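Thread: retinal complex, take 2
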Amino acid sequence: LGTVLAQTQNAPVEAAKLSLSSGQFGLVYQIFSITIATMGAGFIFFVLAQQNLSPKYRPAMVVSALVVAVACYHYFRIFNSWNESYALNAGAYVATAVPFNDAYRYADWILTVPLLLVETVAVLALASNIASGMIWRLAMAAFVMIATGYPGEISGDTTTRLIWGTISTIPFIYIVYTLFVELGKSLDRQPPRVQVLTRNLRLLLFASWGFYPIAYLLPVILGGGSLSANGVVGLQVGYSIADILAKVGFGTLIYFIALEKTAHDRSVGVPENSTSPAATER
Ligand code: RET
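Output below.
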């Protein structure tokens, strides 16, 4: 990992002296700033909102709170890195000798994606032995997806970017397919109002996760290579929007699912103190 992280320091942006207009620099600046605010506010919401849920659904909110806390910190670092990597020069923002560090984003995903997978599998309300096997397979696939995406991300060469991107897409498809199918199957196990929310969750998962590979491709689509200003801006804006949807948006939907299940459990008299999400099946 040390070698890989060190490579970030040699990002090709430095050599090319990429230059952004003040609008381009400012757009990314504002997006990072809003993302920090959203993650921080999400943290407060998840911590406070868990009191409305029966105890067995509270761990899901703790996981959401962890995900956004980790992301809030990383966006703070990403924001600082962005500010250091461009300097105002005759009306344009010119790349400084300090390269923008993409490693924060990948370090963030390595930590938060497995947590989100745990949370999603908990919603499936499977028996715990089946659930833990599924979490392990999905977490391994997530690790491969992120680890193989990184060399492409930091490469200035379009072919290298496309090759690693394609490799990374294989575990990506496995994860999205598995979750989509399993969330679909779990619908029969849920009370009717939870079914509607679970369908929305499936849609949000599909839309937000789908954003990442598209953002990854933007430098290639918008500039024919990873060095165009529009490509750099599109990439950062795209990843930030995807992160807000996949972490704060997703966590909020999970909260509403848990709230609905809490109400349902109370109406049918399911005991409140069970800690197993599997108990929600009934
Ligand atoms: C990469 C590389 C290009 C191919 C693909 C990618 C997918 C990334 C994804 C990241 C998801 C992150 C989440 C974070 C939330 O906390 C690595 C960009 C497919 C799907 C959900």
